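Troubleshooting: if your tokenizer reports a length mismatch, compare your output against this known-good record of 398 residues.
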Amino acid sequence: MDQLPLPLEGITVVAVEQAVSAPFATRQLADLGARVVKVERIDGGDFARGYDTAAGGLASHFVWCNRGKESIALDLKDPRGLAVVRRLVADADVFVQNLAQGAAARLGLDAATLCAAHPRLIAVDISGYGSGGPYADKRAYDMLVQCEAGLVSVTGTPGQPVKAGVPAADIAAAMYAFSGVLAALVRRGTTGRGGPVEVSMLEALAEWMGHPLHHAMHGGAALARTGLAHAVIAPYDAYGTADGGRVLLSVQNDREWRRLAEQVLGRPELGADPAFATNAARVAHRERTDELVAKALGALDADEALARLEGAGIACARLRDVHEVAGHPQLAARERWREVGTPVGPLRALLPPITLPGGGEARMGDVPALGQHTETLLRAVGMPDDEIAALRRDGVVA
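Known-good structure output:
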């Protein structure tokens, strides 16, 4: 049987992007076969290139979000640089931007303007708070949006709210932009027309707040911050083990509690004890419930504790740090690691989580150097050598 091509082969994306939200969205498109042209500033490029040097001398955010792209460095404040972008967009299927609010419109690169000129184009505007409303012009960075969306209010301990350890607002916006592009491509396939796509970080993350938001809006109290515990289920937390590890378990119903009491706690009578027999009772007596579980697991090392829990049919996990995730046996067994080329040599990267059996593997292309493809792309839009030389001489391209 012939292997299916990657679903986005033949699709060209032009992105004027920076940081995480737009780059992570367009990286998904590149992994699925699209050609992605990344337009960067001439003075350092995407500012995420300078966040750190942890990835072999490159910025870890940039390596994560920008594989498989072609980089062209342009000064968009110069009309000649802006004209290059317009020529690239004229041949593109998708345009994505996440410039500061109003900047794209001033350049004529907002979705409405571009789609009016190119009816088949799908143009994506990613912003912090959306194009209208009192927050439209507010500066929006991930942690700030996490606060505005209420994520920080439900994350942390009773005494200390904390932000998520990953850029949750950026990632949420990126994934809605990605799925929005896919939906718009399907619609274009039936109507022949593209159109604007608008995604805001606040609205994306507010959607992810669905459970605590609906719980509070429709009559419940605001959920308490409970660290690794669950606000309305017990036992559901992390517990220390004799070897210094931490094991998490989740009891989802009273049958599981009875199995835990008998096979792990060694206290079968607790399965019928009115103080613990129902989830409501266990939550009401959370401190005592946790003490019972902590005492039993604290006498075992982590491997033994996990084996006992698995044997009892109790959902459980090991609390891993990021180094342990990099060596996770499940990821290794499923062969999820690949190497991606970068300007400093090959680096490990995870296959994207969308797997398409029967088709080609995700196209995990190289991470580009700043302006690596500038000359190739200028030639591709028909620019002669003398004009390219003039642009370089004048600092319009790099």
